[in-house]
Amino acid sequence: MFWNRRERDAAIEAHIPALRRFALTLVRERHSADDLVQDTLLAALSNWAALRQPESVKSWLFAILYRKFLSDERRERGRGEHSHIDEAMALATPPMQEQALAQNEALRALTLLPHEQRTVLWLVAIEDLAYADVAKMLGLPLGTVMSRLARGRERLRQILEGGAVIALRKTK
Amino acid sequence: MSRSHENGLGAIGEDDLQAFIDGRLDEARAVSVEAWLAANPDKAHAFKADKRIRDNLRVAAATHLEPIPTTMRLAELRRAGANAHRRMVKRAVASVVLLMVGGVGGWAARDGLSPPSTLGTMADATAAWRVFANDQIQPVEFTADNRVRLASWVSGQVGRSIDIPDLTEAGLEFMGGRLLSADAGPAGMFLYEDAEKRRFIFYVRATTGERPKGLQIRVSQGIETRFWFDGRHGYALAGPAHSPRLAAATEAVRRSYPGNGG
Questions:
Q1: Continuous segment of H or E residues that includes residue B254
Q2: DSSP string of B53-97, one letter each residue
Q3: Is residue B138 less than 8 Å (CB to CB) from chain A?
Q4: A157 and B137 in contact by Cβ < 8 A?
Q5: What is the ipTM for the molecules in this complex?
Q6: In what order do the strands lie in the sheet with B142-143?
Q7: Residue B184 above 90 pLDDT?
Q8: Is pTM, for the whole model, over 0.90?
Q9: How close is the nearest chain A Cα to the Cα of B136, in Å?
Q10: DSSP state of A124
Q11: Of A12, A107, A121, which has the smallest distance from its Cβ to B60's Cβ?
């Protein structure tokens, strides 16, 4: 692949907002999330030559970020569960309308899912990544991705329809 | 997810249902799924809810897309990286020079023993190669397409007009370069790579110290440094030891920068 620096920068920077948003769902704290994104960008710059197809920039960047997250996670394991407030969700301003309420509820409910279901759902439903790309990125068979997606959706629906979100939030 | 099931109702699977929610089915398959849902009203409710939740998630998540902070601009990250590298080189070079002073002092005290062979004149060129030959992040500050600007910047800093040598005949491609701050003053470093991705540098700086005549060759720890001096400047090429490319490149560079006798 032979792009000049400006094209390459533009191709990568286009995904920074989505990368930050995804990082926040993973680490749940703004500074760590941005550190994760910065590490991802540095790795992307230095490994640019390894990227074969320009159209796969997005899934490639997400894969780098996720691998970095996993290695950080492994390093930090043993320091206990995350006790941070979910900043991603705390950012959602108090909803004014019923519609906005439902939307923010959906996002809050997502944070209650087990990590592996949340990640698959996020990458598929919000980032629009192809199922096959998500499978590759997470190192899972396609079938596992599909069943996590199905289980994640089922759980999400139960939470939202059962009105469990608010109660669960309060117990945090 | 479309697995050409050709409208077979019985073949609807979980993967089809998920792809249906995500709007990733082709039309024929989507029609089959709709038919299946019509025949299974107990499931239809759940899938309608899932689709609505998906839409809500997307709308809510869109409010979390923020403008890129300046610190994440790639140009900014590169600059920050370059500063970190400059500091690293300065440390590397300074430690080499300190070691060298210690070595020479020790040598003088012990009256007659040679200083350690790893250190010596133009050791900063060797140190620069050690740092940048393996740097995969940002070995150069100016890439090859900024050749003219790099040359004029380095020329101004080292006090001599520098033409960046073309070493293609020696099998080396010019990658770019940077200005370094060695203890002896500013130095220009020009990075080259051969077809096997081995790196070589041409290094130049002003010097007032020891200036042996003729071409000097030092090999230590797998690094070969070939250097020489003229009235006011020192020149060096460094690369993997015993490479014929290094010898050929040195010959080519010495045609433009002949140095003192020898």
A1: helix B244-256
A2: HHHHHHHHHHTT--PPPGGGSHHHHHHHHHHHHHHHHHHHHHHHH
A3: yes
A4: no
A5: 0.81
A6: B142-143, B173-182, B185-193, B199-206, B233-240, B223-229, B216-220
A7: no
A8: no
A9: 6
A10: I
A11: A107
Quick check: helix, strand or coil at residue A27? helix
**Locus of tokens 């005549």:** B213
Chain mean position to CA B245 = 21
Chain B residues whose beta carbon lies within 8 Å of the beta carbon of residue A34: 69, 72
Rounded distance between C-alpha atoms, residue A46 and residue B200, angstroms: 19
CB-CB under 8 Å, B17 with A16:
no
Which residue is associated with the tokens 């082709």? B26
Residue A5 touches partner B, C-beta closer than 8 Å: yes
Residue B140 CA, distance from chain mean position: 7
What's the count of helices (H) and strands (E) in chain A, helices before strands?
10, 0
| Cβ neighbours for B117, distance < 8 A, ≥ 6 positions apart | B218, B220
Determine whether the interchain pair A41/B65 forms a contact, defined as Cβ–Cβ distance below 8 Å. Answer: no
Question: Element (H or E) spanning B237, and its range?
Answer: strand B233-240
- Model confidence pLDDT, tens digit, residues A92-101: 444 445 666 7
Q: Which residues of B touch A39 (CB under 8 A)?
A: none
Question: Is A13 in Cβ contact with B73 (below 8 Å)?
Answer: yes
Q: pLDDT tens digit string along A79-95?
A: 444 433 344 444 444 44
The residue to which tokens 């608010």 are assigned: A166
A106 touches chain B (CB under 8 A): yes
User: Nearest-CA distance from B155 to chain A in Å?
Assistant: 25
What size, in residues, is chain B?
262
With CA atoms as reference, the chain A residue closest to B137 would be A46
Residue A15 burial (10 A CB sphere; 0-12, 13-18, 19+): buried
